Structures are given as C-alpha cells and as structure tokens.
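Sample intake sheet
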Amino acid sequence: MIYIIKFLYSFVLPPGLFIVVMAGLVVWLWKRARKPAVVLLVVTLLLYASSTNLIGDLLIGSLEKQYPQPRSVQGDVIVVLGGGATEGTPDINGQGNLLGSAANRLLTAARLHEATGLPILFSGGQVFGDSGNEANIAQRQLLGLGIPAKDILIENRSLNTQQNAVFTSQILKQHQLTKPILVTSAFHMPRAALEFQRAGTQITPYPTDYLASENVSLYAAKLTPSAGAMSTTGTALKEYLGILALKLK
C-alpha cells in the first residue's frame, strides 16, 4: 500500500502533475493539429525521462564512477571544496550551515584528518548575497569537531570551481604544500580535477557524497517522476556541460 501511495503521489505533485497535463494536451491536440502534438509529445517524453530516478542515477553514476575512492591516501594536506551554505540559520556553536553536499565533504575531510593527521584546507566563499560564507562556516564547524586551529586553513573568496582551484593553488604554494588530497562530491570530481590540472596543481582525488548506488536496480519507483530525480539529472547535465566547456577552451 505504501508503494501504491508513493506511485500516485508522483503524478499529483510536480513535475509529475505537469507531465500528466502535458500528456492530456497531446491527446487533445492529436486530431486537431498533428505537428504541434508531436512536438509536445517529444517535450513531454523528455521531461518525463529527465525526472525519473532511472535516468538521473544513470547520468550521475557515470560521473561518480570516473574516479574510484582510494583505499589509502598519501599527501600533505586535505583540500575540501564547498558546495553551498545558508546564512543566519541556527547551528550548535553559531549561525550558518553548510548544505548537504558541502556538509558531506566536510565530514569526510574530518574523518580523513582523524586517520592521517593531515591539515584541512577548505575552499569556498559567499556565492550569493543571502548565502553563507562556506569556508568561514566550515572553519567554525571543524573547530567544533575538535580539530585544532593550527590544522585548519581556509580560502573564503572563491565563487565557483575554477576559483576554488586557482585560489587554493595559491595558498598551497604559500605554505609549500605539494601533495593535496582533493575531497569533493563524486559527481563533481571529474570537473574539479580538470580545473586543478589547469591551475597547475596535481591532486589525489578522494570522491565522496555519492548520489547513486553502485548497482542500479529497476523497479516501479525508478520510473515515476520526482523533483529530486529531476534535480539529479540537472546536476549531471551541468557537470557534463562544464567538462565540455573546459575541454573546448
């Protein structure tokens, strides 16, 4: 019963609701204007496909598998890339929180620090006027986790991945750090690795924050539309477009 309810909900809430409405318009147009109906049908099918977990997982999974997580790492610093933050929201020891991806990256870095004793360099600034400064928030949270201040470096100016790479590379040179372990979301790692390469910094990739399971199964929920699946598809397409743009430069 639970799965039936979930299935029905997927077509009552957006984007499923919009797909149902568009499909109805296709039926209504079919005998009145065949060409517009065909165009609308194609758009509807593309919208439906892009909003299913099956397509989202396949697209994001193809990015996440490009860099396997190493079993052991050797380096002299852990570099963490930000992924969004809120400003003014309550936290245990202050205000402002990292968003899901950034928080997962920070947690991985903290665990790597515990295992290796390496310092952490967090990179990320305040991207929008109403978003938090990612590196400043990360610094406070790392201190709250018991990581010594001497083991925390921050780069709090960057607004995108390109600036992450450039500004972080400058700090690494200042501190004579030459073997960074790069921590970012697995789907983001291919583009981030290219940006660091262009900035002249050789990194050891340590992907985390996986969105797709290792083995993709097929069941009804994989074929129902959802906003989350559409977000995953959009994230994957954004990364592929970013990679293409880098390779064409």
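Comment: The beta strands are 77-81, 85-91, 94-98, 120-123, 152-155, 180-185, 204-208. The CA atoms of residues 158 and 164 lie 5 Å apart.
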